[in-house]
Amino acid sequence: MARTTARTDGARGTGQALTPRRVVAIVLAALGLAFIFQNTRRTRIQLLFWEVTTPLWLALLAVAVIGMIVGWMLQRRR
User: Fold this and answer.
1) Which of 1, 7, 56, 59 is positioned for an S-S bond with 39, CB 3.0–4.6 A?
2) pLDDT value, residue 2
3) What integer best gives the mean pLDDT of the chain?
């Protein structure tokens, strides 16, 4: 016979609560996207010995994605 136990660890089930931390993250993401998509002119970008001409929004978006990946890789587990 299987034993059933009640959860007493305070877990919220799916974890989809709208916490202040998530609200701030959503607001910052919206501001970042607004900034990125308002800067649409073409710009020259140099990295070491490479040089490309690309829309500024694409360069900003690439840097934001790189930052998210680095943050994800360096985050501490609780």
Assistant:
1) 56
2) 58
3) 80
| Structural tokens at position 4 | 């059933």
* pTM beyond cutoff 0.70: no
Q: With residue 50 as reference, give the H or E element that holds it.
A: strand 50-55
Please tell me the number of Cα atoms within 13 Å of 72 on its side-chain side.
6
42-52: pLDDT as tens digits:
989 888 888 98
50-55 and 42-47 strand pairing: antiparallel
Please name the helix (run of DSSP H) or strand (run of DSSP E) that holds residue 36, with its range, or none: helix 20-38
Are the C-beta atoms of residues 66 and 42 closer than 8 Å to each other?
no
User: Which amino acid does the sequence have at 76?
Assistant: R
At residue 5, does pLDDT exceed 80?
no
Note whether 54 and 37 are within 8 A (CB): no
